[in-house]
Amino acid sequence: MTSNKVPFSSNSIRLSVGQWVIVGIICIVSLFLSPALWERIEKFSPGQNFRIPYDLSNDYWLYKRYCKFVGSQSRILVIGDSVIWGHFVPRDKTLSNYLNETTGSEQFVNLGLDGVHPAAMEGLLRYYGKDITNKNIILHFNPLWMSSPKQDLQGEKEFVFNHPKLVAQFIPKIPCYKASFSTRISAVFRRHVVLPNLLSHIKITYFQNSDIPAWTMENPYKNPLKALTFNIPDADLYEKKESTSHRQNNAARNGFQWVATETSFQWSRFRETVQLLQKRGSRVFVLVGPFNEHMLEGVNLESYRYLKKDIESQLLDNDIDYYAPPALPAELYIDASHPTSEGYALLAQQLCENEAFESFVLKSKTD
Amino acid sequence: MLFHSWPFIIFFLIAYPVYLALKKTRFGIFWLLAASYFFYGWINPLYLILILYSTSVDYFSAARMEKSSHRKMWLIVSVVNNVGLLGFFKYAGFIVDNLNALLGSLDIGYEIAPPGLLLPVGISFYIFQSMSYTIDFYRGNIPREKSFVKYAAFVSLFPRLLMGPIERAKNLLPQLNQTPAVTWSDIADGLSLFVVGLFKKVALADYLKLYVDRIYDSPEQFQSPALILATFLFAWQIYFDFSGYTDMARGIARTMGFRLMLNFKNPYLATGLGDFWSRWHISLSSWFKDYLYIPLGGNRKGRFNTYRNMFLTMIISGLWHGAAWTFVIWGLVHAIGRFMTREMERTEFYKEKVPKLVKQLFVFCFVCFAWIFFRAESIQDAWLIIKRIFTSGFANPYCPILALVLIFAAWLYQFMYESRIKRLLELKPVRITIVVLMIFYLAVFAPSSEQAFIYMRF
What residues contact residue B190 under an 8 Å CB cut-off, 6+ apart? Predict the structure, then answer.
C-alpha cells in the first residue's frame, strides 16, 4: 500500500485548518470565560466565622475565591495552618473569633488552611492569594514545622506531606519530595491556568474529591450533572465539635530535633512569605506559636527557647512586628501546638494586651 | 512516555520543530533517529541495546542477502534471531513455568530457576516490523535500504514504536526517503486523529477500566449481570485503548508528514470473524496472513489444510499477545469462531436471510466471549467467570449508566458511519461540534491520573 492510498481513518472526524481555528477559538474563549461565568453562577456567601471547610482544604480555587472576597473588605486577615484554622475546635471558637469577641468587632477573618506548612503557605499565597494586596495580615508561624528535619522537609527519604502541589516543584529542590516529573509539571501548569483549578474545585466540592469517572463508580445510577448544585456546601455541614479525644499525652518528651533557623527550609519559606506579602503592599504582624513547651524538657526545652529567641531577633532585625507569647497553661493544649477553645480565648486576650499588636490593630483602623 | 503525558509533550515540543527545520537536510534523518531512540531510551536505556542489535542483524542480513548466493541462509539468520529474541525475552518465563509444572507433575524434585527477565516494551511490534523487511526483501518485493540510519529510523520511528501499527517497509521506507512536505493540512489531519485517539483512551478506555478491573480482579464476588457487563465493557475498553493509541500515533506521524497504516476499522460492526480480523489490529492480522498463513499454504490446499493453517495462525497470534495459556485459548476460540462463521457464510440462509444487525450482534457476542480469556488473570479465573455467568443468578451490577451511554454513543456513531446516513456525520457543524464536545468532556471528565496502554505489555 503506498502512502497516498492509506485511508485517513475509520470515522469522519477530520477537520480542516479553518475548522480547527474555529474549535480553537471556542476552546480559548471557554477557557477564559468559564471561570468567570462559574463564579457568577455558583453561590458563595461566607458568613461570620467562615473558614474553608476541612474537606475542601485542597480546593485552592475556593481559597482564591475567598481571598478575593475578603480582599475587597477592610478586615484583618489571620493566616496560618491548622492552629489558625482551629483543627480541634468549632469555627466559632477559633483565634480569629476570639479576637473579634475581645475587641468587640468583626474585623478579624479566618484565612487559615488546615495542614498548610510554611513551604506550602508560600505557594498558596503566591499563586492563589494574589487578591490579598494592601491588607493588614496576622501571619502565624508554628514552630512545629521546625521540630525535626523531617517536618522541615529536609529528609532524604520520601515523606508524604500536606499540600504537595503548593511547594516549589523544581527549585529549590526538596529532597523528600519524590513526585514524578509529570506531577510536578502539572502542578506548575495549574498555578498559571485557571481552568484546571476550577475543574479541581468542582471535583472536590461536588464529587467528594473524586474524579467524576470514579464518582460514577460509587454512584452508578446518579446523573453527575445533577450533582452540580452550584452551591458551595455550607461550612456547618463540615463542622467539628470540640475534640479533646485527640488530646495526646502531653508529658514531656525528648523526641524533638529542632532545626536552626540558618538551615531551616520551612523558616526560609516563611520569611519569603512575609516579604511577598509586604511587596504586595500588606502590613504583616507575625504571631509565633505558642508551642506547648510543657512537652519539652532539658536540652530540648533549651534548644526550643534558643530557637524562639533567634526567630524573635530575626523578626526584630527585619522590622517585622511580632508577638511570641509564652506557653499557655498545659491544660489549654490538645497537642504540641493546638490550643483548646479556652486556650484560643486566652491567646486572643494576650494578643490584645500586647503593645505591638495593639498598635498594629490601631493603625489598621486608620488605613 | 505516554502520548498524553507531560514528558512526551515536552519531548515533542523540542523534537518536532527541530525535525521540521532539518527534514530536508541530511541531518533530518539523524535527528529523527536520535529522537526515536531518546523516546525509547526514556523508558529504559538498556532497551536501546536490544533494538540496535535487532536492527543491525536485520540490516546486515539483508545486505548479505543482496551479495550472497545463500540468500535463504541469511533470511533464516534474521528470522531465527528475531524469533529467538522474542522467545527469550517474552516466553522464557512461560516455558520455564510450564517445564516446572511438568516436572512437578512427574514428581521430579527439580525446579528450573525462573529467568526473571524484564519484557522490553514494544519488542513484539518492532521485531515483527523489522522481520517483515527482511522477508519482503528476500521475496523481492522491496529494494534493500542501503542507509543504516534510514533503516534504523524505519524500525524505531517513535510514534509507532511502542504499540504499532506494524508498518511494512514498502509503505514507510519510501516516506523516510522522500521526507514528504508537511502541510497545514497534515497538521490539521494529525490533530484530528490525535484528539479522537486521546478521547478514546482517556475519556473512554480509562473510564471503562475502573469497572472492568473491579469485577475481573475478584470475579468470585460478583454475579452474572456484573460479569456480563464487565466483559462487555472490556470489549470496548480494549478497543478504545488500542485504537486510541493507534489514532494518536498516526496523528503524531501525520503532523510529521508520515502516513501510517490504518489499524482499526470499526471491528464491532463485523459480520463474521474473518471480517472481524480484517478490521481489528489490521497490521498484525495482515502480517500473520502474509508471513505465516499464506506461506503455510493459505486456502490453496483444500478445506482441511485451510482450517489447519487458520488454526495455527490464530493460536500463534494468540501467543504473540502474551506468554500465557489464556492467550493461546483466546486464539483458539477465535479460530473456532472463524471456522464457524466461514462455514455459516457458505450457506444461502446465512448470507441472504440473516439480517446484518443480527450477524453483527452474533459476532460481537462471540468476540466478547473470547475476551474473557484475554482479560482473565488465569484459565481458572476465565472458567470461573464463564461458569458464574450462567449459574450465579441475579444481583445489582452497579454498572455506571454513563459508561453504557458513552459506549452506545460510540457504537451509534460507527453504525451511522458505515450506513447510508454517513453524510450527516460529515457535515461541518456536526464534525466541529463533536470535536468541541470531546475536548470539553476530556477537560471536565477525564481522570486525573495517566493509565498505561493495555497493548504496551505485549
Answer: B250, B251, B252, B253, B254, B255, B256
CB of B345 within 8 Å of a chain A CB? The answer is: no
Residue B287 has what DSSP assignment?
Answer: H
Note the Cα A309 to chain centre separation in Å.
26
Cell of A41: 453562577
Q: Give pLDDT tens digits for B69-79.
A: 889 999 999 99
pLDDT per position as a tens digit, B98-128: 888 888 888 887 787 777 777 788 999 999 9
SS3 state at B383: helix
Question: Is residue B456 predicted with pLDDT exceeding 80?
Answer: no
Q: From the CB of residue B389, how many other CB atoms can be counted at a distance below 10 Å? A: 19
Q: What CA–CA distances, in Å, run from A258 to A94, A141, A145, A301, A336?
A: 27, 15, 9, 10, 14
pTM for the model: 0.86
Find chain B residues with C-beta within 8 A of A207's C-beta.
none
Span A324-340, mean pLDDT?
94
Helices (H) and strands (E) in chain A, counts: 12, 5
The residue of A19, A27, A37, A182 whose CB has the most chain B CBs within 10 angstroms, and thus the best one to mutate to test that interface, is A182
Cβ of residue B225 closer than 8 Å to a chain A Cβ = no
Among A152-166, A227-241, B25-39, which stretch is predicted with the lowest mean pLDDT?
A: A227-241
CB-based contact A51:A110 (threshold 8 Å): yes
Consecutive H or E run containing A288: strand A283-288
Q: Can you tell me the distance from the alpha carbon of B311 to that of B282, in angstroms, rounded to the nearest whole number?
A: 18
| Residue count (chain A) | 367
Contact A267, A240 (CB under 8 A): no
Q: Which of A1, A3, A213 sits opposite B447 (nearest CB)?
A: A213
**Residues of chain A contacting B169 with CB distance shorter than 8 Å:** none
Residue B275 is predicted with a pLDDT of 94
CATH of A62-366, one of 3.40.190.10, 3.40.50.1110, 3.40.50.150, 1.10.357.20: 3.40.50.1110
CB contact under 8 A, A217 and B5: no
Q: What is the pLDDT of residue A1?
A: 44
What's the number of CA atoms in the CB half-sphere (13 Å) around residue A205?
24
A225 touches chain B (CB under 8 A): no
Which value, to the nearest 10 degrees, does the dihedral of the CA atoms of residues A118, A122, A123, A127 take? 150
pLDDT over threshold 80, residue A62: yes
Give the tens place of pLDDT for each residue, B346-393. Answer: 999 998 999 999 999 999 999 999 999 999 989 999 999 999 999 998
User: Hey, are the CB atoms on A9 and B247 less than 8 Å from each other?
Assistant: yes
Interchain pair A16, B188: CB under 8 A? yes
Q: Does A230 touch chain B (CB under 8 A)?
A: no
The dihedral through the CA atoms of A124, A128, A130, A134 has a sign that is negative
Handedness of CA B171, B176, B177, B182 (dihedral sign): positive
**Which has the closest alpha carbon to A258: A346, A161, A120, A144?**
A144
Radius of gyration of chain A (CA): 23
Grid cell in block for residue A111: 484565612
Per CB-CB distance under 8 Å, the chain A contacts of B443 are 195, 199
- Provide the shortest C-alpha distance from residue B118 to chain A (in Å): 22
Query: What gap in Å lies between CA B28 and CA B16, rounded to an integer?
Result: 11
**pLDDT value at residue B111:** 80
Q: How far is CA A346 from CA A256, A354, B51, B221, in A?
A: 26, 12, 71, 56
Return the number of CB contacts < 8 Å for A and B.
127
Q: Which residues of chain A are within 8 Å of residue B189 when distances are taken between CB atoms?
A: 8, 14
